[in-house]
Structure formats: C-alpha cells, structure tokens
Amino acid sequence: MGTTEIPAEPQRVVVLDTDKIDTALSLGVTPVGAARASETELPTYLGDLSGVAVVGTTAEPDLEAIEALEPDLILGSKFRQEAFYDELNAIAPTVFTEQVGVTWKENFLLDGDALGKGEEAKQLLADYETRAAEFGTSLGDALATEVSLVRFMPDQIRFYGPDSFSGIVLGDTGLARPELQQLNGAEDRRFGEVSAEELDTVGGDVIFYCAYGTDGEAMLADYTGGELWQSIPAVQDGKAHQVDDEVWMTGIGVTAAGMILDDLEQYLAV
Amino acid sequence: MTRTETPPEHRALRLPGRTVLRSGALSVTMHRRSAAVCVLLLVALLGAVTAALCLGDTYITFADTIATLTGTTGYDRTIEVLRLPRTVLAVAAGGALGIAGALIQSVARNPLASPDIIGVTAGAGLAATFALTAGLSYALLAPAALTGGLAAAAIVLMVAARGSLSAPRFVLAGVAVAVLLKSGTQILLLAADAIDAQRAQIWLIGTLAGRGWTEAGFLGVFLLLALPFLVWAQRALDTTDLDDPTATGIGVRVTGRRLGLAVLGVVLASAAVSQVGAVEFVALAAPQIARRLARTSRPPLLASALTGAILLVLADWLGRTAFGDYQMPAGVLTAALGGAYLIYLLLTKGTRNEKSTPGRRPRLGLRGRAGRLRDL
C-alpha cells in the first residue's frame, strides 16, 4: 500500500484487528485505541484493557475517534480496512498486513518491526516455537493422537484446518489431525463447514470446541446437548473440551498461541 | 431573462400556478411553487452539509469550519480528510439517485418504480458481491458494480421494450429481474467466507465510510456529462404523463422518448450505486417527497435531486455520529429517514390536499396514486 515513515518508538498506537491487540500487548505496548470484532467486545484473555478506547469495529473503524486519540502509529489489515487506508494514513503512519491468520507469524514480526520491537518479536516467536516442539516431544506416542477443532458460529459449524491459527499451533507441536480436518487438496486449508446433521463426522480422539459470540454460544449449547454430539466417541470418553474462542480463534498472536499450549498441556500431557 | 407583462392576447394561455419567463423569442414556463420549494430545499441542504462538517467527535464551530475551507486552521485533517470528501460524495450520490428515481418513476408512471425495485441496484449488488467474495482487487469493485447495474438495466429494458415499453411492462420486467439477481446475491453470500460476506453485506447496505474525493469526482464528471440530457429530459418528461394514444396523437414518439428517459435514469442510478453501494430508498423516496412538497403531477427533477442529497448527507452524518463508536452505514438510515418522512407526507399532505380541493380530481393524494396503480 505504499511506504510510510514510522517513529522509532511509537508511543500512541491504535490497532484495528484482533491479532494486533495480542501483538502489541505481547511486546509490552498497550494500545491507546483498538477496534473490536463485530460480534464481541475487546478480548479478555489479555488482562485489563479498560484503558484502551474502542474505536469502532474491525470492518467499520470510527475514524474521528481514532483521530481524537492522536496516534503516532496505526496497525491494520489490508484485508479488512483497505478502503480506509488514505484516511488512516492522513491521521498517522499506517502499517497494514495482507492476510489474517495463515501468515500470523510473519504479521507478528512485521508489526513488531513497526512497533520498534523487531528483536523482541523474533525472540518471543522463537521461544514459543521451541516450547511447542518440546511439548510435542514430551508427548511421545501421544503425537499419534488426532486432535479435532470445532467452532460454533451464529450461522454454521466449522472445523479448522492446518492453515488456521490454532491449526498452525497444533502443527508446531506435531500433533495429528483427523483426515477430514487436514483439508488435503483444498485451495483454502483454513477451515471447512460441517453440517449440523453430520456433526458426528468431525472425528478426532480429542475435540477442542468453542463458540463465536453469544449467538454462537446458543448454537453450542443446542448442539452439544443433542444426541448426535453425545454419540461421538471422544465426547463419550470425556475427551471433548470447551476452550476460549478469543484464545483459540480470534486471538491470533504469540500470547494466544502460548495459551493454546497451556490448554494442550492441561488436557493432553502424559 | 426578465418577466414582462403578459400581452392581452396571451392571457387565455396562462397556466395556473405557473409563471412564463420570456426573453426575446425564448420562453420558459416555471412552476412557481416548484421554484420556491427548490430554494427551500437548497437552504435545507446547506444546513445539512454544515451540520455534517461542524458536528462529530470533535465539535468545530461554523466560523472555524469556514476558515478551514478557505485557509489553514488546526482542523484541516478533520474537515478536509474525514468530513468534507464523504459529505460532497453524499451530495453527488444522493442527487444522482434522486434524479434517477424521478426519471424512472415518471417513465413507469408508478411511484414504486425506482432503481432499487427495477433491478439496477440488484445488478450492481450481485456484481459487487461477486467481486468481494471472489477476492477480486478492491480497485475493481466500483467498475464491477457499474457494469452489473448497467447490464441489469439493459436486460430490463430489452424485456420491457418488446411491446412499446409500456409502463406496467417496464415495472414488471424490472421486479422480475431484480428478484432473480437478488437470489443470486444470496447464494453468493451464503457460500462465501463469513468475513467476505460481512464486507459484501456492508456494501449492499451502502456506506460512505472510507470513500471520498475519487468517488465524488467520478460522479461529478458523470453528472456534468449528463447535464445536457437532463435539460432535454426536463422537457421530455412533460409528455410522460399523457396516455399513449394522446401522446402519439400529438406527435410524440412515445417509445423512443420513454426509452431515452429510462436509460438516462438507470445510467445515473448505476453510477451512484457503483460508488456508494446499494443505498436503498433514496431514489424511491426523494422524488415522492419532492413531488408532494412541490405539488406537481410528476416528480420534479431538481427538487428530487436536492431531496436525495439532503437524505444521504443526513443519513451519513447521523450514521457516523449518533451511535457512539458504532459506525452505522448510511444505507440503514436513508430507509429510516426517507420512509418516516414519506409516511408523514402520505398521512398529512395527501389528505389535506384532497380536502382542500373538493370536487376536483385529486392529482397528488392517495386516490390519485391508487388510480395510477390500477394501470398495472
């Protein structure tokens, strides 16, 4: 989207996508403003964010609210805020990453550079990857365990593939995935949809499931209470665990990745 | 041009409520109430624009706003980047939609006929939804929408033109094509990734957020090019009220004239929608509001343009200021504002007018409209 001059040590940062809240706070920078996802409020897993002003939603940022914060750096996603680049860049130097999720590690390093904390970002990412690999090794034979990821959304039920954020974290540990969820041969290997009638086909020895927003929670309550869900072997074995959607799905950052590892350690450690 | 005493021999031709302006061999009949309404609407539009520039997260006084527009103050960015471009775009797009609605409603002789109903908006919407969900470059969004709107209009006109482009046929063809296109859009939305679908849905509602000079410039040039045709349309429209045999009888080429007016309408609507998204109801409500204010038999063009501009400027301004940090797309509010005002006019002005002219055929009120609808 062009080049931009950014201050060496930005002090007032506005972040316009959920992954960038994680990135900024992971690097010890508390943003002055953040856009929220349309279905939810600012994430809670990152601690107290009461000092962070909400500046609209990720799809419809409130430009005047951003301007009023007098930021010196704006981090956003081209994918979501392309139409607003000119206005944003007139307010403060604006850095966009291209995609969300698939390239979360590259995004983290780029945003880290923009925040003037490139070295710290590299170190944090390396630490995470080491921890993920060591956890995988510690599992030994358990690596053959197929891990299933299911998300209840307001209008559909999804499983998540190897190119999704949590899929990438599972990949870093070396854990196995059910055949269906490997999305082999698919162009987009982030996620697929599973119909409500075939909910029992999601597969996996262990299932981690979560819900997006309050409507998703209602879906989750409906379906996980149903016979079909209860007939899944992993559910009967007590190996289906509800996890935090903010951490596993919308978090998309090194802190969220670490917390996924926490969950895996809790439920899978041998 | 000066107004002179009407010579005695012309007194018999004097039209009620109209003033004839003469200058040499040229003469223009002017509907006095329409002219007064236009002046009032222009004042209202200036008021709406002033509100949109002064009031927001930061309050900027009228004096500071004027100073910013003419020089440099501390508010340059707020006014010149964040508020002015989208407001100018709202004026241009609202005006274009108002004119488009007036033209199409006049040709169809039906107040329900507007670009939103007869397929133009639906065609643009389908093309834009495709562009957004198929991952096309953002730069292709507006051209795709423009093409989609024009293609849909071409199909409608082709279907309707088999058989002299009669008013009811035009509306029915439009509704049928619109329904088909909308179902196509729904299929694309359901099949798309949720985030793409969300972006498409915002486009389908219509918003001025993130848009500005580029879009306003495009529309400005478009309107300028359309100006000569609009001058022609202003005169040509007078015959659209006549029934077909009468018009043919006085030597009007009914189909050709109607086709010309309809094409002008759909082209303007497609251009506006391609820049701001499928903003609904401006093109439907603005001409009807203008017609009721001016008390004319068909929607007046200039007053419709001004009403459309006011509606869109107000909708955009309220959308970005009235809901806290939530930025409400303008399209949500055009329907709310326009709909509410039109209902008010239907409930008050229509009945009052009928009561005030006992014994005369009601030209504006509910009965007049019902009579037209029976044509279908």
Name its key features:
heterodimer; A: 270 residues; alpha/beta; five-stranded parallel β-sheet; five-stranded mixed β-sheet; 12 helices; 40% helix; 16% strand; globular; B: 376 residues; mainly alpha; ABC transporter involved in vitamin B12 uptake, BtuC; two-stranded antiparallel ribbon; 14 helices; Iron ABC transporter permease (chain B); ABC_transptr_permease_BtuC (chain B); cell membrane (chain B); membrane (chain B); transmembrane (chain B)
Sheet with most strands of chain A:
5 strands, parallel
* Total helical segments of chain B: 14
Radius of gyration of chain B: 21 Å
Q: What structural class do you assign from the helix and strand content of chain B?
A: mainly alpha
**Helix content percent band of chain A:** 40-55%
Q: What is the oligomer described by this structure?
A: heterodimer
Strand content of chain A: 15-25%
Task: Provide the CATH superfamily of chain B.
Answer: ABC transporter involved in vitamin B12 uptake, BtuC
CATH topology of chain B: ABC transporter involved in vitamin B12 uptake, BtuC
Q: Which geometry of chain B do the CA atoms define?
A: globular
Helical fraction of chain B: 55-70%
On the 0-100 scale, what is the average pLDDT of chain B?
A: 83
Distance between the amino and carboxyl termini of chain A: 48 Å
Uncertain runs of chain A: none
Tally of helical runs of chain A: 12
Sequence of secondary-structure elements of chain A: EHEEHEHHEHHEEHEEHHHEHH
Structural class of chain A: alpha/beta
CA-to-CA gap between the ends of chain B?
A: 43 Å
Tell me the greatest interface: A-B, 29 and 24 residues
Q: How many beta-strand elements of chain A?
A: 10
Judging by the overall fold, what is the CATH architecture of chain B?
Answer: Orthogonal Bundle
